[in-house]
């Protein structure tokens, strides 16, 4: 929702659009949050993350009624709209990192094939986690075939827009879907 509002306001030129690879913070802080949340839970038995997780707060508000915790959700929304796109997911939430670890074992993967790529970046524009597509930038791919990072949500939007089928869905090493 914050993303949509941000883009809408930017379209009306009421604020400056943040680039899709918004560099507001270093992505290395997410594992730090992951460790902090895990340590607090392990030592105290208290899940701090659950208390400040906006998904949990909104869920509880829908069931039990609104409370002051919704002000935290509002603050997060404003922060994401006006300062840092998807800040919670990109820099704080440990769930994405945990899913990423599980996703590393997934038989479904997105892979990038360098030879036909035009490097115009259509895939990065539609991707919600464009840092995983750094390899499509000219000179960045370390090999002719690159597995896309584990933050990829397998939404396949990049596969749909790629004009050269350079991005493909692979299932157990076999091409499953290409554009
Ligand atoms: S499948 Fe979706 S999340 Fe993954 S790289 Fe492509 S657009 Fe990004
Ligand atoms: S959309 Fe396809 S051709 Fe364009 S930069 Fe991405 S991978 Fe390369």
Protein topology:
Layout: H1 2-11, H2 29-44, H3 48-52, H4 54-64, H5 69-82, H6 87-92, H7 94-103, E1 108-113, H8 122-126, E2 145-147, H9 157-161, E3 167-171, E4 174-178
Helix pairs in contact: 1-5, 4-5
Bound molecules: iron/sulfur cluster (SF4) (2 copies).
One iron/sulfur cluster binds at residues 117-123, 136, 161-164, 166-167.
Search tags:
single chain; 179 residues; alpha+beta; Alpha-Beta Plaits; 2 domains; four-stranded antiparallel beta sheet; 4 strands; 11% strand; globular; binds iron/sulfur cluster
Query: Secondary-structure element order, as H and E?
Result: HHHHHHHEHEHEE
Oligomer: single chain
Structural class comes to alpha+beta
Rg from Cα: 18 Å
Q: What's the rounded overall pLDDT mean?
A: 88
- Approximately what portion of the residues adopt beta-strand conformation? 5-15%
Reading side by side through the largest sheet, how are the strands ordered?
A: 2-1-3-4
DSSP helix count? Answer: 9
Low-confidence stretches: none
> How many angstroms separate the termini?
29 Å
Q: What's the overall geometry? A: globular
Name the bound molecules.
iron/sulfur cluster
Would you kindly provide a written description of the structure presented here, covering whatever features stand out?
Helix content is 46%, strand content 11%. It has 2 domains: 2-99, no CATH class; 107-178, Alpha-Beta Plaits (2-Layer Sandwich), CATH 3.30.70.20. The protein is built from 9 helices and 4 strands, in the order αααααααβαβαββ. It has a 4-stranded antiparallel beta sheet. By secondary structure, the chain is of the alpha+beta class. The two termini are 29 Å apart. The model has no long low-confidence stretch (mean pLDDT 88). Bound molecules: iron/sulfur cluster (SF4) (2 copies).
């Amino acid at each position: 929702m914050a993303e949509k509002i941000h883009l809408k306001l930017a379209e009306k030129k009421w604020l400056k659009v943040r680039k899709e690879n918004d560099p507001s913070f270093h992505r290395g802080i997410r594992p730090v949050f992951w460790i902090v949340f895990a340590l607090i839970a392990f030592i105290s038995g208290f899940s701090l993350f659950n208390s400040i997780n906006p998904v949990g707060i909104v869920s509880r508000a829908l069931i039990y009624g609104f409370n002051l915790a919704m002000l935290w959700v509002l603050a997060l929304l404003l922060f994401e709209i006006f300062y840092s796109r998807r800040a919670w997911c990109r820099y704080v939430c440990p769930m994405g990192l945990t899913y990423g670890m599980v996703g590393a074992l997934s038989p479904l993967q997105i892979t990038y094939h360098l030879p036909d790529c035009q490097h115009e970046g259509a895939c990065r524009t539609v991707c919600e986690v464009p840092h995983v597509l750094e390899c499509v930038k000219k000179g960045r791919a370390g090999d002719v075939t690159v597995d896309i990072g584990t933050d990829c949500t397998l939404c396949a939007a990049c596969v749909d827009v790629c004009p050269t089928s350079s991005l493909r869905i692979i299932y157990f090493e076999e091409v499953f879907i290409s554009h």
